[in-house]
Amino acid sequence: MNSIYFSEEHNMLRDQIRRFVEQKVMPIAEDWEETGKIPREILQEMGELGFLGIRYSGEYGGSEMDTLGAVILAEELGRSTFGGFAVTVLVHTDMASPHLDNFGSKEQLSKFMPDIISGKKIVGVAVTEPDAGSDVAGMKTRAVKDGDHYVLNGSKMFITNGVHGDLFFVAAKTDPDVKPSRGITIFAVEKGTPGFTVGKSLKKMGWLSSDTAELVFDDCRVPAENILGEVNKGFYSIMRNFQNERLVLGAQSMGEASKALELTMDYVTTRKAFGGVLFDKQAIRQR
Question: What percent of the chain lies above the pLDDT cut of 70?
Answer without folding.
Answer: 92
